[in-house]
Amino acid sequence: MSMLRRLSEAVEGGVAVASATVVDTSRSVPRRAGAKMLVFRDGSISGTVGGGEMEARVVSEAVAALADGRCRLLSYRLVDPGRGDPGVCGGDVQIFVEPHMPNPTVIVMGYGHVGRAVAQLADWLGFRVVATDDRSMATSDSPDSEVPGSDSGDGVPDELIIGTVDDLLAGRRIDEDVSVVLVTRNVDVDAAALPALLATDAGYVGVMGSERRWATTRARLEAEGVDPTALDRVHAPIGIEVGAETPEEIALSILAEVVAHRRT
Q1: What is residue 201's predicted lDDT score, i.e. its pLDDT?
Q2: Cα 116 to Cα 183: distance, rounded to the nearest angstrom
């Protein structure tokens, strides 16, 4: 797979990645102009710009670029390590580092009336939307227990996962650019999902429901041994108070809080 295709797949999959490209060289260097490497937030790489101490420095700068969103033009002289040079090849090299940031992701857990409204508004706001529900695609006679898949058209999620929180998290990197919105049907679903979600690096985790519902959920989780400090991360009841009543108004309240949290 080409480096550019890997970069495209990473960004489309919601993963931040920095590209490091050798843009200029002189004399003896390990890689010539055009050599590319991808660097992820955790410092893992794909490809190489030459290895050794020079590459380690590039990786460090690329991780910093993912943190601050700024490009970098790096210049290295590979002559005298005694003077701080990262090599002894005898040449000079310039490497351009560029961060590629995907749209931030909103994970909507619970895809009933409110969940679909959150997904639609989040899509309009430019988020990448992943929706999940543990219910099957079968129809229901009760409007209050409406199931995933009953809507179609604009604003549908980028991904719709039918399954448990383990199915949601399998192979998925959850970092600070991810906001998780739990708009599920009851305490049991919230309590089952929260321990795994709070073990991730999600930037925001919010739970819908009354203060009493959250108190019940929290008490159950603490009794099961979940760290109270981890539970302090949860925004509950979710959303900014706007007197919301309809699913669309509730979605507005929720995403206003998500955006405010991301901007602070």
Answers
A1: 93
A2: 10
Closest CA to 135 of 170, 186, 206, 181: 186
Q: How confident is the model at residue 96 (pLDDT cuts 50, 70, 90)?
A: very high
Share of the chain above pLDDT 70, in %: 92
Dihedral over alpha carbons 133, 136, 137, 142 (to 10 degrees): -90
User: Does the pLDDT of residue 29 top 70, yes or no?
Assistant: yes
pLDDT in tens, 123-160: 999 999 999 998 874 334 333 434 444 444 456 798 99
Q: Let me know: does 253 contact 245? Beta carbons within 8 Å.
A: no
CA distance 176 to 200: 9
Cα 252 from Cα 196, distance rounded (Å): 26
Note the maximum CA span of the chain: 76
Q: Is 36 helix (H, G, I), strand (E, B) or coil?
A: strand
Cβ-based neighbours of 140, under 8 Å, separated by 6 or more: 146, 147
Structure tokens at 72: 């970098």
